[in-house]
């Protein structure tokens, strides 16, 4: 293993250890939208079920809209103080983008047209026949993958985050006029910490890991 690889791994391990959920933010810090877009674009490299990429984002950085969001998010102060709130949404019709996604795979030389056509037909039939709640469960899993990726990327750029499941999804959908095909899954506050995160502890491996049998 080269020295450069070791340095990159060490940086990554440090990033994992230093990322904590921060709830107190410096209100004076504003993250440029271009930088937020860069972080979100990198985040989309996360895996998803059948590569359908069902995540959609509503980034809320307008102070008045944050005020409207505050009671919906149980009056958590980070909603107001953080630079932005990234609402991670799940698209119940993500399978309708299968043709566009796999057409890019053909253009990139990753598969041929016949394989693409078979993939798209299978995905549209399979996902299109699933009930909404099953699709939402799949989207929730995929949202967790991209959300963690976003939080690590934000930390690598010197920002802090906190994931928030404590909000009213029905009221969020109403206030921000989401179509029925989009469901809110998670809110992520992102900005500069005003004070360090509270220390947290983890269960030891012997309490959570078994090998081959329980």
UniProtKB/TrEMBL annotation:
InterPro entries: Nitroreductase. The keyword Oxidoreductase applies. Keywords: Oxidoreductase. Residues 16-192 form the Nitroreductase domain. Transmembrane segments: none annotated. Belongs to the nitroreductase family. This is Nitroreductase family protein. It comes from Paenibacillus brevis.
């Amino acid at each position: 293993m080269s020295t450069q690889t070791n340095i990159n791994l060490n940086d990554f391990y440090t990033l994992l250890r230093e990322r904590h959920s921060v709830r107190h933010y410096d209100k004076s810090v504003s993250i440029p939208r271009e930088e937020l877009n860069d972080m979100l674009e990198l985040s989309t490299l996360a895996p998803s079920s059948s590569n359908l990429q069902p995540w959609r984002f509503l980034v809320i950085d307008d102070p008045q809209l944050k005020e409207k969001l505050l009671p919906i998010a149980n009056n958590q102060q980070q909603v107001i103080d953080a630079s932005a709130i990234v609402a991670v949404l799940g698209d119940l019709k993500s399978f309708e983008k299968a043709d566009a996604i796999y057409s890019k795979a053909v253009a990139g030389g990753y598969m041929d047209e016949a394989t693409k056509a078979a993939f798209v037909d299978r995905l549209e039939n399979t996902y299109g026949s699933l009930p909404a709640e099953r699709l939402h469960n799949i989207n929730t899993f995929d949202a967790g993958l991209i959300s963690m990726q976003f939080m690590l990327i934000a930390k690598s750029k010197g920002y802090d985050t906190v994931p928030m499941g404590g909000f009213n999804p029905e009221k969020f959908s109403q206030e921000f006029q989401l179509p029925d095909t989009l469901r809110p899954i998670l809110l992520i506050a992102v900005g500069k910490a005003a004070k360090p995160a509270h220390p947290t502890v983890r269960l030891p491996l012997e309490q959570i890991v078994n090998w081959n049998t329980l």
